[in-house]
Amino acid sequence: MSPSPHYIKAGPVAQRFNNLVGRLARHGISLLGSAELSVRGRKSGRMQRIPVNPHSHGGAQYLVSARGHSQWVRNMRAAGGGELRVGRRVRRFTAVEVTDDAEKLPVLRAYLKRWGWEVAQYFNGVTAKSSDAEILAAAPDHPVFLITIRN
């Protein structure tokens, strides 16, 4: 029997903070680039919403799950895309999970450099300054999706 996929569930304070950030994004206020992600639930079929930090790297946009294999990650794998919202601006996108270590490594390093102050607690001591081997060791616990905005 294989162990459960890595996931760090949000506690009550983090849930309240996420609700606030999501509500702000819905009303047009982005905190340092945050947006509200909507993705269709794989079981319910209903749109599920959560605040995320879209990350640009090398001319492409990514979504990184700092907490691990969360429900939005599982839903994204099934749906293959979703929407990012800040106020009235809604960007629909398709998503492809990045599984190649050579592609994932620089994205995670750049993500940790940009968002490490917020997400370091979920990476067990791995930072943007960690070695390639250390980041790659943490990589399976942090899904990355390449997103392509649809017009």
Task: Summarize, please.
Helices cover 33% and strands 27% of the residues. It contains 4 helices and 7 strands, in the order H-E-E-E-E-H-E-E-H-H-E. The protein is globular and about 40 Å long.
3D architecture notes:
The protein has 151 residues and is an alpha+beta fold. It is 33% helix and 27% strand. The protein is built from 4 helices and 7 strands, in the order αββββαββααβ. The protein has helices at residues 12-26, 71-79, 101-119, 132-138, and strands spanning 35-40, 47-52, 55-57, 60-64, 81-86, 89-97, 144-149. The protein has a 7-stranded antiparallel beta sheet, sandwiched between helices. A hairpin with a 2-residue loop joins β5 and β6 (89-97). The longest helix has 19 residues, at 101-119.
| Count of beta strands | 7
Low-pLDDT stretches:
none
Biggest sheet: strand arrangement: 2-1-5-6-7-4-3
Structural class: alpha+beta
| Percentage beta strand | 25-35%
Residues in helices, as a percent range: 25-40%
What brief labels describe this structure?
33% helix
Topology, pairings included?
Elements: H1 12-26, E1 35-40, E2 47-52, E3 55-57, E4 60-64, H2 71-79, E5 81-86, E6 89-97, H3 101-119, H4 132-138, E7 144-149
Antiparallel strand pairs: 1-2, 1-5, 3-4, 4-7, 5-6, 6-7
